[in-house]
Each structure stands twice: as C-alpha cells, then as structure tokens.
Amino acid sequence: MKAAVESQAALIELQRIDSAILAAQLKLKSLPEREQITAIHTRIAAGAIEIATAEAELADVAIDLRRSEVDVEQVANRMTKDENRLSSGTGTPKELEQLQHELVTLAKRKAELEDTELEIMMRHDAAKEKVAIFKSDEEGLKKLELELNVRLENAAADCAREIQLQQSARTLVIPKIEEPLLALYEKVRAAEYGVGAALLIGNKCDGCHLVINAIELERIKSLATDEVLRCEDCRRILVRI
Fold this sequence. Notes:
Elements: H1 5-29, H2 32-88, H3 93-173, H4 179-191, E1 197-201, E2 204-205, H5 214-222, E3 229-230, E4 237-240
Parallel strand pairs: 1-4
Antiparallel strand pairs: 1-2, 3-4
Helix pairs in contact: 1-3, 2-3
Pfam families: CT398_CC, Zn_ribbon_9
Domain C4-type zinc ribbon: 204-238
Domain CT398-like coiled coil hairpin: 14-191
C-alpha cells in the first residue's frame, strides 16, 4: 500500500489523539474515588450492624438499670415506712425490736442493691458511649463519602472534557488521512490494544519497542517514502521520520 507522506504524518497525529482519548477513558474508569466510595459503603454497612448490636445491648442494660432502680426504691420505701413506725413508738416492745432488726437487714440489702445499681450504671454508660462512638464513625464516613462524591464528579468531568477535546481534534485530523490507510489503521488499532501506528525511530518500532533487524532496515531504506510500512513483530503501521 502507498500513501502520501503527509497522510502518514497525519496518521501519527491521529494516533497521539487516540492514545490520549484511551488514556482519559481508562482514567475515568479507574478513578481512585470509585474504589474509595465502595470501601466506605462496605464500612458503613458493617457499622450499621455494629450500631444495631450496640443499641440492642444498651436497651437491655437500660432495662436492667430500671429494674435495679425499682428494687432500690422499694427497699428505700420499706425502710422509710419502718423508720416512721419506729419513730412513732406505736407497737409492742417486741414489734419495735423486730422493726430495728428489719431496718438493719434492709440497710444491708439496700447497700447490696445500690452496689449492683452502680455496676449496671457503669455498664449503661459504657454501652451508651459505644453507641455514640459508632454513630460518630458513621457520620464521619458519610461526610467523607460526600467529599469523595464531589471529587469523583469533578475528576470525571475533567476526563469527559479531555475526551471531548481530543475527539474534536480527531475530526480535524481524519480528513488529512487517505481512506485506505485510515481503514488499515482502524483495523490494526482494534487488534493491537488501541495502537495502530507507531514511529520508526532509528532502528526501533515505537509501538512494540523492538529492534528491527539490519536486513529489514536496509529494505525499508530502499523503499519509496510513500510506501506504507508494517512492523514485522507487532504488525503496526510504521511511519518514518
């Protein structure tokens, strides 16, 4: 195949544009914010389970605390009632003596219940703090997610602008390339990971970066400048400079 030198030069310009488009498309697909947002979603989901578990624990401890408060309150009321009766002096000496013994017993019982209540209060405070920490973490993650979404939107917009810019440049270059050469380029580009044409720099193909053997290089030198070359290794179109 033959093609004008100007057409082959335009092909390299087109390849640079297509490589820029491909790079922008790959960047768009692999923006780090996407993976970070996915990781945050996973952490939020796990955090929601932790919050639910901690809240259930807090609810159970709250019930225990209320029961303990009621127990203390009942004993305290009984003690008040006995103290008032003892103070009034009503009753036989034996009954008053029994009241004194009962007050001693109730005081011990009240002390034990208060110790239990204090222990439950400490558990309640710890469970409450755990819920607060989990919710604070969740709030922080959601705030970070919002920030990442903004960054992702901006980065995606930058990539989209770059792609649009390069596509506009592509429409200006294509008319400079002869149709048969352009068709060959598109075919090779589809088969060779987006690179259909490469420069021949010295004795190397800039597409596969392999050295061209001396015999092939001499043959190339003998060809007319409008002869379209192909790399023997990667089969990309070779453009001489």
